[in-house]
Design goal:
Number of domains: 1
Radius of gyration: 17 Å
Strand content: over 45%
Number of strands: 17
Helix content: under 10%
Number of helices: 1
Distance between the termini: 9 Å
Shape: globular
Structural class: mainly beta
Length: about 200
Amino acid sequence: MTLRPRTMTFLLLRTAPLLAVLAVSACSSRGVTQLRAQVRGWTGGEGRIEVLNDDLKTLATTPLDASGRFNLPLPGPEQLAGSLQPSLIPSGIDGCQNTVKVNGDAQYYTLGDLTAFSSQGSKVAYTIVSQTHSTDQARSDKRVMIYVTQPVQVRGELKCGAQSASYRLSLQQGWNYAVSRQSQGNTVIESTGKEGFEGWQVKQ
């Protein structure tokens, strides 16, 4: 497998077996600060996990053990400087119906994919995601994490032709859990709890 640069389409957000470990993240007065999880079915041996921005710059990294477990410190303001975006709504949407309202003035960073590097053999990189599918593959839930510089609410719909994205986000300063639910050209992007973020897999 080869490294795929992290991309976000309009249907997601601007900018995705071993038993999973139970603990997902560490919380403090600063909110969510780390992601403790496991790559299910990992066979690449020891290695490392990295957070890469769109320019493939490493924003955070942590060791990956032979069973796929990792404990990733999430990047803070200093690491994210230069990678933050002014909006979650993609640009270039002329002709689309946009009823999305933003209550707050924040900058954003969306983390939907991680990159796993195996230390075995050649330096191979794998894109990993936290995603589940319905049995008929018609629906999928992709878990993402969103960083904001201050509290903000993002609500409304962006509709372009037969495709639409509905935003239902209440975000606190720092890192937040969210999920992108996709079905037949329609996507709902909403705030969620930490459940499911403990399990990741190599993107096919």
